[in-house]
Amino acid sequence: MNKVMRVRRHQPRRFVTATSTFVLATALASAAPAFAQEAPAPAEDQTSPSVPLTGQDTLIEDTQSGPGEVVVTGTRIISSGFTAPTPTTVIGEEQIAANAQPNIFNTVAQLPALQGSTGASTGTFSTSSGTQGLSSFSLRGLGPIRTLTLLDGQRVVGANVTGVPDISMFPQLLVKRVDVVTGGASASYGSDAVGGVVNFITDTRFTGFKANVQGGVTHYGDDGQALVQAAYGGALLDNRLRVIVSGEYSHEGGVGPGDFGTDLAGSRDWYRATTLVNTGITNNGSPQFLYRDFAQPYQYSRYGLINNGPLQGTAFDVNGVPYAFNYGSNGQPLGNGRVSNCFPGNSFCVGGDLSGAPGSGASLKSELERINGSGRLGFDFAENNEVYVTVNIAQVTSNNQPSPGYGRPSLTVQCANPFLPQSIRDRCAVAGITSFSFGTSNAAFPDPKVSTDRRQYRFVAGAKGRFGLIGSEWNYDAYYQHGTTISDINVDDIVLQNRYVAATNAVTLNGAIVCADPAARAAGCQPINIFGGFAPSAAALAYVTPENGPFQHTKLTQEVASVNVSGDLFNLWAGPLSLAFGGEYRSEFYRVNGDPYGAGVTGLSPNSPEYPADPLLNSTLGSNWAAGNYKNGRGSYHVYEGFAELNLPLFNSSAIGRANLNGAARVTDYSTSGTVWAWKVGGTWDTPLDGFRLRAVTSRDVRAPNLSELFAAPTVTTLPNFGDPFRNVAVQVFQNTIGNPDLQPEIARNTEIGAVYANPSWLPGLSLSFDYYSIKLDGVVSTLSPDQIVRFCFEGNQAFCGGFELNSPIQGGNFVNVQPFNLASWKTSGFDVEASYQWKKPMGMPGTFTIRALATHVREFLVDAGIPGVSVVDQAGANNGNTPNWKVLGIQTYSDDAFSLTLQERWFSDGTFGNQYVVCSVGTCPTSTGNNPTIDYNRMKGAFYLDLGGSINVGEQGAFFFKIDNLLDHDPAPAPQTNTGLDVNPALYDTLGRTYRAGFRVRF
Fold first, then answer.
1. Any idea what DSSP says for residue 16?
2. Given this structure, which CATH class describes domain 679-1003?
3. pLDDT by residue (tens digit) across 635-674?
4. Which ranges belong to the motif TonB C-terminal box (predicted)?
5. Which of 464, 753, 455 is nearest to 582 (CA)?
6. What residue ranges do the domains of the chain occupy?
7. Which of 903, 904, 900 lies closest to 960 in space, CA to CA?
8. Phi-psi category of 28—alpha, beta or left, where left has phi over 0 and alpha has psi -120 to 50?
9. Do residues 933 and 871 lie in contact, with contact meaning Cβ atoms separated by under 8 Å?
C-alpha cells in the first residue's frame, strides 16, 4: 500500500494532461482568444439581452433543450407564463467576460449575497485542512456545505470529503450564465440547498470556435497569471448530431510567502503583527484583551531564546552568539517563564525584537494550476428530443507555505550540549542548573510546503425533450452521473517531533558530537545545532524531515440517477395548472489513507524503506509529525428521494393583475439518518401597477450531514501557542477533530418577501428589486473551538473538562478533542437590493450605458451553541468573519461597436473583531468571561475597492481587453488574532493589492 501511494504521488499530472491533450492542443495552438461572448438569451422583464437580470426568477430560454423551452433554476416547473417566487440573480456571459478573471469563481463570489466563499486566497495558513486552493461558494454566510452548486442543474462530485465541488474544475468557457438562487431550494433540488443554489448553465448547443488568452500580474510583481481557453462546436446530420469540445489551462503563481517578523511578500507593508494580547486579568476593572500592533511572543525567537530559569532572556543571533533579547514593552525576564510589563495570558510583549514571529511568512495566496477538458455528444433522435453524453476531466493542483521554519516554544536543553557556546555552559555552572527551557522558530530549517492535487472524472449520460400527453406538452430530463475525485495532499519539510527532540539533545562521544539517545543513534539520528542560524546537515534533515513527509490519499465517488418531468395538467380559470415531479437516487462514498507516521499502523517493519520502524515514534496512534497528521478512514451513504411541485394560477385579468401559488414537497430517505421532509409554499402577484410585482415564499429546507461530519478520519491540527488558563501560560497542543456517525439532518425555515419593479412604460430598461429574508437553522452540525472548550472548563463547567490535556509530561501529549454535534442553532435575517438600468444612446452618443447595483444587508446572524452557559453571539458585522452588515457591488459600463469601458465598485461596511466583546477602559470594566470578554478596542474598518476594465474590438470576431482590480491598491484592515497567525481576513479583504490583467478574445 505504501509503495503504491508513493508512486501515485508523482504521477497524476501526466495522466490527466495526456487525457486532455486533444482539447488543450486546440487552445494552445490558437493563441487567438475570445471576443466577448454572446449576450444572454432574451428574458422577460428585460429590454435588451445586455441588461443584467435583477434578482428575478424570470423566463429564460434554455438553448440546451431546444427552442422555446424555458428553464428557471429556482423551480422545476417548466411552463409558459410561469414566474417562480424565489429570487434569482443572473450573471451573463458579458459580465463574466468583462470581469476578466482567471477563474469564473472570482466573478461569482463578488455577489454580496455570497459570504464566506473559499478560494486560492483562503486557507493558506493551515497545514491539515485539505481545502487549500478549493474554490467553493457560501451563500448568506452559512458555509459552502449549505450551498448547493450545480452544473446544468445536475450534481457534481465533491472535491473533498465535505462534498463541496471545486468550481475550478468546471468547463468555464462554455458557461453562458450563472443563476444564483438566494433562498432555500431543498424541496426542488434536495439536500444542501439551505442557503440557496448556484447553477452554472453551459451552452450545450454551441457551434463555431471561440478562444481566450490572458495574462496578469500584481503591482508587486507576483501572482503571475496565464489563461488559455478554447472551445469548438460542430453539427452534423442536418444539425441532429452535435459535438462540443473545450479545454483550458490556467496558472496563478500565488503570492508569498514573506519572511519572519513583519516582512510580507513583495514590497507590501501593511502587516503590523496586530494581536489581541491577553493580560490574563479578568476582574480588576481593566480590559482582559488589548488591541496592539507589533506584538511578539516572548517564548521563542528566530534563532533561539532561553525562556525560563536564571538564564531567561538570553537569545542567539544568526552566528550563534548570545545576546540579551529585546522583549519590547520595557519587559524584563522574571526567571519563571514570564516577563515584566508583558502579557502572560498568551505570552506576548509589544515591540522589541519581532524577528521570530512567523505570521508574515505564510502565503497570501496559493499557487494554483488547473487543466480542464470537456466534451459533449448530443443526438436529436426526434424533434425536440435528445440523448447526450458528457465527459469532464479536470485536474487542479495548488501549493502554499503555511508558516516558515518550525516553531518550538518549549524545548528542554541540557547545559552539557556541545553546540552551546562555552559562555552559556559557564553561566549554567554558576547558576547551578543542568538544563533550561528554550524556544526557537528554527529559521534555519527549510520552510514547509503543502501541495494538493485533485483530479476529477465526471461522466453523464442523459435524455431530455418533450412529449405529448393528455392534450398538452410535457418536458422530461433524465440523467445518470458517475463522478470520481482523487485527491492527494503532500506536506514537505515537516518535522517528526520526537526525532527533532532527539537530534537537539547532543553529547560528545569519543570526540564526536552525536545524539545522546543510544536508541535514536541506532535509528539514524544526526545531531542538530539549534543555537543560531546553522542549517542542519543533509543527513540530519533526512532524519528529522524525511522526504516522504505527511501524505493523504482520498478517493470520493458519487453516483446519481435522476428523472424530472414537468407539464400542464389542464387549464383553469387563470391559466394552466402545472406540475413537476421526479425522483433521484444518490450514493456517496469516500476512502482516505494517510502515511503511517501520521495515521498510525501496527507492526511497522524496520524493513520498510519508506517508513521504517523507530522506537521514538508511536507506530500505533501516529500523530508523529509537527503538522499534517492525516488519518485513515472511510464511509458511505445512499439517498432515495422523490418530489412534486405544483403551480396554481389564482387570477389573471387587467383589473387585478396576475397571480400564482407555487408549492413543492420532497421526501428523502438517508441510509444514515432516516426520512426527512422538505417543502415550500410561495406565490407571485403581477399587480395592475405597471411593472410592479410582489413575491413571497417560505420553505422547510434540510441538509444531511456529509461524509466528513459522519465518518471523518481524525484530523490533527497543531496549535503551537495555545493559552492554558489554568497555569496562565502558552503551550503547544494537538487539536483532534473526529466525525460523529450519530448526526441528524439540519432543519431550516427559510422565508423571503420581496417586490420587483421592472420595465415600467415610463422608463424601459429600469429594473429594481427588494427582498427580505429570514433563515432559522436548527440542529446545526457544529463544534466549539478548542479555546472555548478549555475556557468553559476553567470557568467551572465540568461537562467540558474530560476532553483535553494541557500539562502532559509526554512529548506531544497535550491535546483538545473536538467533535461535531447537532446542538447549535443559527438565525440570520436581512435584505437584498438590486437595480439595473440601460440607457441607449446616452446624451445622443452612440452605444449603450448600463448600470447595475447589488447590495445585501445582514441585520442579524445569531449563533446559539445550544450548550448551557454559552451565550448567543451575533456575528453580523463581525468583520473577522464572513458577514459584514453591508456588502455592495456596483457596475457601470459604456459600450458601442468599437470599445467598452467598465467601472466596478466593491464595498463592505465597518465592523468589529467580534460582537461578544465588551469594550471598556481601565477602571470601568466588568468581570471578563469566556462568553463576554472585555477589550479596549473593537472596531474593524471595512473596505472600498475600485476596478477598471475595458475592451477594444478588432473587426467583428476579436477584442483586446484589460482589467485592473483594486485600482487604488487598498490595504486590508488588521484582523487581530490571539496567537501568532497572519492578522488578515482573506474571506473579506483583498490581500494581494492592485492587479493587472490583459488579453485577447476571438470568436468565429
1. H
2. mainly beta
3. 999 999 999 999 999 999 999 999 999 999 999 999 998 9
4. 987-1004
5. 464
6. 295-353+407-440+497-544, 596-629, 679-1003
7. 900
8. alpha
9. no
